[in-house]
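Worked Example 4.2. Consider the chain below.
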Amino acid sequence: MSSNPAPYSGTLAHESSLGAGIHYHYFAEAAARLTVSAGDSLFIEVFLDPSNAPRELMLQWFDGASWSHAAYWGENLIPWGSDGTASQRSMGPLPGTGQWVRLEVPASAVDLEGRSLSGMNFILYDGRATWDHAGKLGH
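Applying the procedure from the previous section yields the following structure tokens:
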């Protein structure tokens, strides 16, 4: 893949750098906050580069006080948090490559019910991904 795939939603998507080991990009202290209610799930649309698939991808959310809210797919190679807790919750294998896939995380699994989010971190171990529309799904 030589460039970003066409965006999944709207006109913008953001592609990670291509790197070995842990690499990431994030935003924090956003003025517009996302309030998460009981029963909500968080989601993001992601496209894994079929020529440079990561070994792990992780999402972290910032509630204004802590980044200790993370979910990951694939191998457990990013040593941030305690595996099996809200700070590092496995969501299963990596999604397929070369297509847009929606990843969903129950807010309760990462201790985010009733919190207001102002940041998000997009983390990979090896490889490259393109990230698109993210938000919450009410239940």
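The mean pLDDT is 91. Residues 23-137 form a domain with the Jelly Rolls fold (CATH 2.60.120.430). Compare this with Example 4.1 before moving on.
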